[in-house]
Write a structure and sequence with these properties.
661 residues, Rossmann fold, 7-stranded mixed β-sheet, 30 strands, binds 5'-O-[(S)-ethoxy(hydroxy)phosphoryl]adenosine
Length: 661
């Protein structure tokens, strides 16, 4: 079975089950009764979890629910950074390592204790205040995987400013869109970072973007690689100049539980990325609880490693906020898995004695290709729990992860959630649940979901359909920045009174849940969400392109790969002598418009696109072509010969395949 993405009909489930290891079950943080307790009184359950945090003022009301708008822990006040740092130092754990940071170049490492991290965050909070940032403002963070990324996020939280982290793989244009939408005042960046064994630049994209962003009054630049950068006097500040001279202690103010904590932009089914808004109290309660429960975290002894970049939500909830709120020790790695050898990850696990690893199926499938000799040559016996996130994990990858990385002893927690949900929603509990390979099993305690058919009727205990959430949860998004209507339309209009996640799901005959991938126009490439419409808009913004249609085709490594079908304008058609060179030009154009992560793997230049008589592009057929399948029903096509022409060309063209970069 090689299913990674499949229609609801064709999805194969598994019957093998693995029980929790006895030792783990005996000492687990969470027991089976958590489900019943939470179901009996969901709000009390979440209040109980909220008491794990430090509140400057307790809440009066657990939940104020005016659908689709939720406020959690109403009246409560807290400081998120105090919960992630000061609290642990005050409890006598200041000398515990918070971050074992590992740079891509070998031997480039830094260890930061909780005490040191608190000092750095305090200085940065002072620096941001000096640069004019106030509570309620937005700060854009465009950094590689360096400790300053986490420090900047926490410094914003400390002063009540919301951060908007933009992944370093996005282009200047994507930065402009995000800075403008958020009206950000300050941008924090670096000269560059290390990736794939070389220094890459970041500041030029910021320079280009900020020219078009009048809201930005200051740019703070971390020196990471030492490469030359352009400089705008008065606007640009080296991190070391503006941060290092600040006082190392900072009196933190407590903010309302609903104080905005961050915006994170994500692709939707239409072109413009959405600024997903998360607030403070409920978000921190659920990220901290799930991180502790789902990984069975023991902060005194565990060494946790989440491989996600801070530019994505996993890097927010399970690299920054959840782990630090729980006071654990973690590894943060800057580079790619093959930098300094394809066994780099296994070396890191061995060196630091990593006990919990949280990564994505794409990475696991890549390691499977590289062969089990590489992990086999390292001592991975410190590992005790393995996690997966971002895309459906196929049973073979799950089994390989368990056997080769987990030594057949570590439970695997497949965790389903989204940028919008803020924290994990569906996952097994490692000391309680027996796991089926490839399944995220069921909703966590305190979470309520329902799989429904097209009419919104529950499919009951067994059956497939659309995944919906039918009760609010603490870490839920509070809206789309500046666009209330879009929030209602996108998430709450498809099924009355329910949040629709965009995913298909199926309960098997044991009432175990299987995630089936997106059912909308959002692709999932290596666990990164990219909308087909966004890539199409980027392609048609090229002067030679007339029309473009983009589909996500099943890919054995990346889950899905971006495949584009393009028609060119009549006047230029004859000038395109080399299809391959033109495809490369288009790929680069998409990289400029969105970022290298959105480059199509294949571009087919075709004379026409298949359309229905009413003029709609038939993506289903293009997907069949992209996946080399028999073509489905073509009877509704305006011109059925078009699709034959496309598939003939697609199989004869070199198609310009290039790996995603
Ligand atoms: C997909 C990432 C199957 C899903 C945390 C969702 C998954 C989208 C899983 C959100 C999983 C995430 N199994 N699919 N364990 N985890 N997804 O916002 O389609 O980047 O809607 O959040 O990823 O992607 P996002």
């Amino acid at each position: 079975m090689t299913t990674t993405q499949a229609g609801i009909e064709g999805f194969a489930t598994e019957d093998r089950r693995f029980d929790p290891p006895a030792e783990l079950a005996a000492s687990a943080n969470v027991r089976e009764d958590a489900y019943a307790t939470a179901a009996a009184d969901r709000l009390s359950f979440w209040e109980e979890q909220a008491r794990r945090l430090q509140w400057a003022q307790p809440w009066d009301t657990a939940l104020d629910w005016q659908p689709p708008f939720a406020k959690w822990f109403v009246g409560g006040k807290l400081n998120v950074a105090v919960n992630c740092l000061d609290r642990h130092v005050d409890a006598g754990n200041g000398d515990r390592i918070a971050l074992h940071w590992v740079g891509e170049p070998e031997d480039d490492t830094r260890d930061l204790t909780y005490r040191e991290l608190l000092r750095q965050v305090s200085r940065t909070a002072h620096a941001l205040t000096e640069l004019g940032v106030q509570a309620g403002d937005r700060v854009c963070i465009y950094l590689p995987m360096v400790p300053e990324a986490v420090i900047s996020m926490l410094a914003c939280a400390r002063i009540g400013a919301a951060h908007s982290v933009v992944f370093g793989g996005f282009s200047a244009q994507a930065l402009v869109d995000r800075i403008t939408d958020a009206d950000a005042k300050v941008v924090i960046t670096a000269d560059g970072g290390y990736r794939r064994g070389a220094a890459s630049a970041l500041k030029p994209a910021v320079d280009e973007a900020v020219k078009r962003c009048p809201s930005v009054t200051a740019v703070v630049v971390v020196k990471r690689t030492g490469q030359d950068v352009d400089w705008v006097e008065g606007r640009d500040h080296w991190w070391a100049d503006v941060v290092d001279r600040q006082p190392q202690s900072h009196q933190a103010e407590a903010f309302d539980a609903e104080q905005p904590l961050f915006l994170l932009y994500t692709s939707g089914t239409t072109g413009k990325p959405k600024g997903i808004l998360h607030t403070s109290g409920g978000y921190l309660v659920q990220t901290a609880y799930t991180h502790w429960a789902v990984f069975d975290l023991k902060p005194e002894t565990d060494v946790y490693w989440c491989t996600a970049d801070v530019g994505w939500v996993t890097g927010h909830s399970y690299l920054t906020y959840g782990p630090l709120a729980n006071g654990c020790t973690q590894v943060m790695y800057e580079g790619t898995p093959d930098a300094g050898g394809r066994d780099r990850w296994w070396k890191i696990i061995e060196t630091y004695g990593v006990t919990i690893l949280y990564t994505a199926p794409t990475a696991i499938r890549t390691f499977m290709k590289w062969g089990e000799e590489l992990p086999g040559a390292h001592d991975l016996s410190s590992l005790r729990v393995l996690g997966s996130v971002g895309e459906p994990i196929n049973p073979e990858a799950w089994m390989w992860y368990r056997r080769v990385i987990g030594g057949d002893r570590c439970p695997i927690v497949d965790t389903w959630w989204q940028t919008e949900t803020g924290a994990m929603m569906i996952a097994p509990l490692p000391g309680v649940s027996s796991c089926k390979p490839g399944s995220a099993m069921g909703p966590l305690p305190g979470i309520s979901l329902d799989v429904v058919d097209g009419e919104g009727t529950s499919v009951g205990e067994v059956g497939g359909g659309f995944l919906t959430l039918d009760e609010p949860w603490p870490a839920m998004l509070r809206g789309i920045w500046g666009d209330e209507q879009r929030y209602r339309d996108t998430y709450w209009s498809r099924f009355e009174g329910r949040y629709f996640a965009g995913d298909g799901a199926k309960w098997d005959s044991d009432h175990v849940l299987w995630l089936l991938g997106r059912v909308d126009d959002v692709m999932n490439v290596s666990g990164h969400r990219i909308s087909t419409t966004e890539v199409e808009s980027a392609l048609v913004s090229h002067p030679s392109v007339a029309e473009a249609a983009v589909v996500g085709a099943t890919d054995p490594t990346t889950g899905q790969a971006i495949v584009a079908f393009v028609t060119v304008k009549g006047s230029v058609a004859d000038d395109i002598s080399s299809g391959e060179a033109f495809a490369q030009e288009l790929r680069d154009h998409v990289a400029t418009q969105i970022g290298p992560i959105a480059k199509p793997k294949q571009i087919h230049i075709t004379p026409e696109l298949p359309k229905t008589r009413s003029g709609k592009i038939m993506r289903r057929l293009l997907k069949d072509v992209a996946e080399n399948r028999e073509l489905g029903d073509v009877t509704t096509l305006a011109d059925p010969t078009v699709v034959n022409a496309i598939s003939a060309r697609a199989s004869s063209q070199p198609a310009g395949g290039s790996p995603q970069d």
